[in-house]
Amino acid sequence: MRYILVFDHGTTGIKAVLLDKQGQIKARGYTQFEQIYPQPGWVEHDANTLWEKSLPVAEEALKEAGASWQDVQAIGITNQRETTILWDAQSGRPVHNAIVWQCRRTSDFTDRLRTEGKEALIRGKTGLVTDPYFSGSKVRWLLKNVPEAQPLLEAGRLKFGTVDSWIIWNLSGRALHVTDTSNASRTLLYNIHTRQWDEELLSLFDVSQSILPEVKPSNVIYGMTDPVLTGGCSIPIAGVIGDQQAALYGQKCWEAGTAKSTYGTGAFIVMNLGETPTTSAKGLLTTLACDTSGEPSYAMEGAIFMAGATIEWLIKSLGLIDSPQQANELALSISSSEGVYLVPAFVGLAAPYWQADARGMIFGLTQGSSKAHIARAAYEAMAYQTREVIDIMQKDANLQLSSLRVDGGVTRSDCLMQCLADQLGIPVLRTDDADITAKGTGYLAGLATGFWASPEEILSLPDKTEKFHPRLSEREREQNYQDWLNAVKRVLI
Predict the structure, then answer these.
(1) What pLDDT, in 10s, does the model give residues 302-342?
(2) What is the CATH number of domain 3-243?
(3) Where are the domains of the chain?
(4) Please, what is the end-to-end C-alpha distance for the chain in angstroms?
(5) What confidence tens digit (pLDDT) does each residue in 109-144 have?
(6) Quick one: CA torsion of 479, 270, 212, 157, rounded to 10 degrees?
(7) Which of 205, 278, 289, 370 is a plausible cystine mate for 245, CB 3.0–4.6 Å?
(8) How far is CA 105 from CA 44, 109, 116, 137, 158, in A?
(9) What dotted CATH number matches 253-431+463-493?
């Protein structure tokens, strides 16, 4: 077979890519879908749309490559994590729109769990904080607020899944109800130490085990597609993994003490911990990722809410600049922000603070401050936040990074790359591959089906990166960082 096909179900769009034996993307298809906002703080997707737009996107990629389903050896799936879907297994119909990972409708319930002292129990079993971000409270909300849910539960017809489970169930002709360890580890219902759905957590969230998918490693064959859907071919479904863990694998951060950071709307920093789970004392998450062969391993994760979204704010809300390219050019036109600090807490602060009520501020403005200083301060803020997360990771895990691999649209900025290297004091390696998440998923699907014989063969594939080295002195680096931390203190409530 010529290709691995990967579905990448993101938060705003669906991508399908074809990966060849040399690890190169030969074709891609893409479509966006609607974001649904029933009320402030609530975010939903039409689950039917997530499925119905998938196969046309794959057909688009196949057509671009001059290929057919017969050329596909396996199908991998990566996805937005935590987004929650309940459906009727008999009719195949979702009982409600998907509740998206960004949705805050269950804040009152998670606040109550913390008030009742359940945080330590949940964190000890799941490695996560008690927050609406994750799937558990979303499932509970659906069970208690959708009238159709309880009768279907009692009739044994109700199914729960994150987006991967929903797509696999449909793609297999409704034969497979499965998920992988990385997605399960984001639900607040899965014990990352026993690798099982946890009865105590299920009781805490009022969720029945009967609705849960079977959990498998990311690197196995889950089953086969319904040939009616895939051009008469029954194709293995393999390589299933959440998007941030997929990027970690795609960046070949397979050993303990290697890390990647993805800069899109926000930023996600993930460090491979190997076989030893470490609980952060400072609000970072412990989750499941993959080792060299694709078997489950532990990772530590820190989320930053505002990365590319900060540049968008400068463009659309303030009108200071016209494009990300102009932001980068302005930021590079000066050597320093000259004491201007932007704390982009527009939707609160994520790791390590988890303060939803914090709000953004700009400090240090003078009459000499220009939009170039503000643009540079925006990129520096991403670097400072990344350093804060990585410093905690290294201390909590007792691991030391020798470099950081980065990906995502914002990494096109040379200013951001240099700011990262300067603040971290280590080389930063930028990949020129915009599909690193899909590649990581494809590698796992290829290993599961013999498309590649071994991880060593994947390591030998071309891997084009650009390296940025630190330029700041240690004194300048530390002084700038301390000034940033002092700015953050002013926005904390």
Answers:
(1) 988 888 889 988 998 889 899 999 999 999 999 889 899 99
(2) 3.30.420.40
(3) 3-243, 253-431+463-493
(4) 57
(5) 998 999 999 999 999 999 998 888 899 999 999 999
(6) 90
(7) 289
(8) 11, 9, 19, 9, 22
(9) 3.30.420.40
